Amino acid sequence: MSLTLFELRARDGQRYSQFSWRTTMALAHKQLKAAHKGVRVSDKVAIAFSSQDKVPILVDGEEVIADSWRIAEHLESRYPDAPSLFGGDTGRGLARFINAWVDRTLIGRLVPLIAADVVPLLDETDGLYLGKQFERFFGKPLAELAAARERDIVGFRKLLDPARAVMRAQPFLSGANPAYADYILFSLFQWARIVSTFEVLEPKDAMTAWRERMLDLFGGLARTQTSFSAMVE
Ligand SMILES: N[C@@H](CCC(=O)N[C@@H](CS)C(=O)NCC(=O)O)C(=O)O
Q1: Is pLDDT at 42 greater than 80 in this prediction?
Q2: Ligand 1, from 44, 55, 73: best to mutate by most atoms within 8 Å of Cβ?
Q3: Which residues pair with 65 in a beta bridge?
Q4: pTM for the whole structure
Q5: By C-alpha distance, which of 60, 14, 30 is closest to 183?
Q6: CB under 6 Å to ligand 1: residues?
Q7: 10 C-alpha to center of ligand 1: Å?
Q8: Which residue has a Cα nearest atom 10 of ligand 1?
């Protein structure tokens, strides 16, 4: 078995792709080791072998799988004896809801507040590429988006209420232990802490305590291994 994960790398090695963090956490959950290969966001030639233009991409032996959700499903079916990412078909169905909630609701409300902080972490070509992509997507200059963030973060925090209610009752979204639904939500906060010093969560928020628990998982994997060089084997 040989596993390679292709993910984004910033100029100084920061592993800033939020979707790739879902896969990194899923691999750790499954107790699988992978080689991590960094790619630049504007370099589509490096990932042309996957017949699409986004990361994460997992190469598992002869198989090439793109898209974090599809990768999670692949890991679950290919490694059934390792700890489960979903806890069965019902859990998989509910995790799919969390995937859609994060992708369709939360990302669009947090990313614009922090997008301006990402560009200086990239080299010139990548910075221009991603900056333009953000501006096209959110329809405003990055500086304008960032200027409103102290106000707009309040609305984002409110959106977390369903998750916050769960955290008051149990330590993880998935119950007593973390699973893929937690990794999906966590990827957004992990991205934010890698690219920005902006306080997304308030210190006393139950979500902050959950984020700390997530950072502690797998020997502090997400807390310590934010830099690409630390992951190269
Ligand atoms: N639905 C995909 C989204 C992947 C995605 O948007 N990846 C971003 C990085 S976090 C990317 O590769 N962007 C490059 C581009 O859009 O050119 C997944 O879940 O993996």
Answers
A1: yes
A2: 55
A3: 58
A4: 0.96
A5: 30
A6: 8, 17-19, 41, 53-56, 67-69
A7: 15
A8: 17
